[in-house]
Every structure is written in structure tokens, then in C-alpha cells.
Design goal:
By secondary structure, the protein is of the alpha/beta class. Helices cover 28% and strands 22% of the residues. A five-stranded parallel β-sheet has the order 9-16-10-11-12. The two termini are 28 Å apart.
């Protein structure tokens, strides 16, 4: 979004390597609404403005990697960020992930069992469950590919689609069906259960509830950042927003945050300003 791309622009122009992770959760600006209060434009489509931010950041050398952060190690120096295909080393980190994923939207048991059977990445954790019964949840083009990958690894996977099956996903479901992968169509995942690890799940369709014994649950939708931040040692407030000072510094040295993830004014102009401050403070930190 605007905070992350502004930060990347400033870092790249200062001659430092700027890598932006562009994950599953899109910027609100991608919705394509009209903006009339961004300086310099009487009116501009939010997607068009976002594209300008992206083009400018890339022009000055920022690199965009379309992957989610799956694990963070931020308390030491250097810092490490793990994605599906990369293990990234950084001297400073700026977090600009947008409005926090609320706990109310999480599946009961998801947060407690993340890393103990709950995963968001087939490539990362699928091999741990080869030959074992697992459940995948979600429905998108990415979901289909991830489920096929789990099946290829030798996992005994079944897919819970959720209630809303869009017509464009039916060809993907047909691919899974042809592979013999069990599909729980129009089922919802209601709860993930287990003492120390995932042991079973509760699914529901048309008021009928069923328990299924599984060793793991792979969830394919935007990743709840609050659990990721808490495990990394970052301080959050009662709204699950990252706590920062006036210089966009978080509770961890060398880690900064900007934009909606700090629950400020939720405006494009302020997100740009916070991204600028975060980048300048990160550069100052690197000069120490």
C-alpha cells in the first residue's frame, strides 16, 4: 500500500536495497474508489494512484516479491523474514501490512495452534505431514495449486471450500476431483481442536456438525498478522494494532511500522507521511 511503497521509494533512493513483500491481503486502494483529498489531484482513482506509487518505487530500484511473510525473527541483528520461497536477511524492517486482521475473523483454535499443526504454506510445512490426514481450507486459484502440491507430497488432503463457491473456481475444483481429492463443498470450518497440536476439526453444513480427525490444517487466505507479530515479540494495543512512537519505531529496535497497521488516521496522505518517516528513521538506524 501507500505506506510500504513510500518507504521503499525513500530507502531505494538512498542507495539501500529495498525489498517489498506484496502478500495475499491487497491494499484497500486496490478496490478502485475515487480519492478527492490527496494533494495534487482534484480526483483520482485509488488503483491508479497505487499504480503510480508502485511504478515510482520500482523506477528507483525497489524490488517487489509477491509473497507473504510466514515467520519473523526480529529481536536479533540481523533480522530474518521467512516466505514460501525465501529466507530473507535484513538490517532493518518496516511493517506496513495494512489494517490488522481482527481476532473475531479467526477460526477458533487457529491462533493457539499456529505452528503446531496450523499452517499457511504447503511448501513450507507439507512434507511434515506426508502420509497423514490433513485438511485444507479456502477457495481460490492459489488454494487449488496448494492442495495439488500437498497431494503431490503424499499428504492425505481433503478440502473444505467454505459456503461461497464462485463459478470461476469450478474448473479448479474439477481438477482436484479428477485427482481423487475429497471435497467438502459448501462446508465451513468452525473450530480447530487439540491440546498441544492439531488433533481434529469441526466442520458444518446446513446446520449439521461433524468432527474430523486430522494432523494438520492448511489455511489459504490472508494470514492473520497479529499472531505473527505477537510471536515476534512486537507490542500490540487493545485494537491489535502495532504500537509505535512519533518516529514510527515499534517496541523492537530496528523495526518500524507505518500506515493502517498502526491504526492512525487511516488516510492515504497520512500513510505516505508515516512511510516516509519510517524509512528515514530506518536509514538513520542503519548509520549507527
Amino acid at each position: 500500500g501507500p505506506a510500504g511503497l513510500t518507504a521503499a521509494l525513500y530507502v531505494a533512493r538512498a542507495g539501500k536495497k529495498a525489498l517489498v513483500l506484496d502478500g495475499r491481503n491487497p491494499s484497500r486502494m486496490a478496490l478502485g474508489y475515487e480519492i478527492e483529498n490527496y494533494p495534487g489531484f482534484l480526483s483520482i482513482n485509488s488503483q491508479e494512484l497505487l499504480n503510480k506509487f508502485l511504478e515510482q518505487a520500482r523506477h528507483h530500484g525497489a524490488e517487489i516479491l509477491k509473497e507473504d511473510a510466514l515467520a519473523l525473527a526480529l529481536e536479533s541483528q540481523p533480522k530474518y523474514v521467512t516466505t514460501k520461497s525465501a529466507f530473507i536477511e535484513a538490517q532493518a524492517v518496516i511493517i506496513a501490512t495494512g489494517k490488522p486482521f481482527s481476532k473475531e475473523r479467526m477460526i477458533p483454535g487457529e491462533e493457539e495452534l499456529t505452528g503446531r499443526g496450523v499452517s499457511y504454506c504447503a511448501t513450507c510445512d507439507g512434507p511434515l505431514y506426508r502420509g497423514r490426514d490433513i485438511l485444507a481450507y479456502g477457495l481460490s486459484e492459489e488454494t487449488v495449486e496448494e492442495v495439488l502440491e500437498l497431494d503431490q507430497m503424499g499428504c492425505k488432503v481433503r478440502l473444505v471450500t467454505g459456503r461461497k463457491i464462485k463459478p470461476e473456481y469450478e474448473p479448479g475444483l474439477e481438477r482436484l476431483k479428477q485427482k481423487g481429492i475429497p471435497l467438502l463443498l459448501n462446508y465451513e470450518l468452525k473450530e480447530i481442536k487439540g491440546e498441544k497440536r492439531v488433533e481434529k476439526v469441526v466442520v458444518e453444513k446446513d446446520g449439521q456438525v461433524e468432527e474430523i480427525i486430522v494432523s494438520a490444517v492448511f489455511i489459504f487466505r490472508e494470514i492473520p498478522s497479529t499472531a505473527l507479530f505477537t510471536k515476534a515479540g512486537l507490542q500490540l494495543d487493545q485494537r491489535q494494532c502495532l504500537v509505535v512512537d512519533r518516529y514510527q519505531r515499534t517496541s523492537l529496535e530496528g523495526v518500524f511500522a507505518a500506515g493502517d497497521v498502526t491504526c492512525g488516521s487511516m488516510q492515504v496522505a497520512s500513510a505516505v507521511g508515516e512511510g516516509c518517516v519510517a524509512a528515514m528513521q530506518a536509514l538513520a538506524y542503519l548509520r549507527k
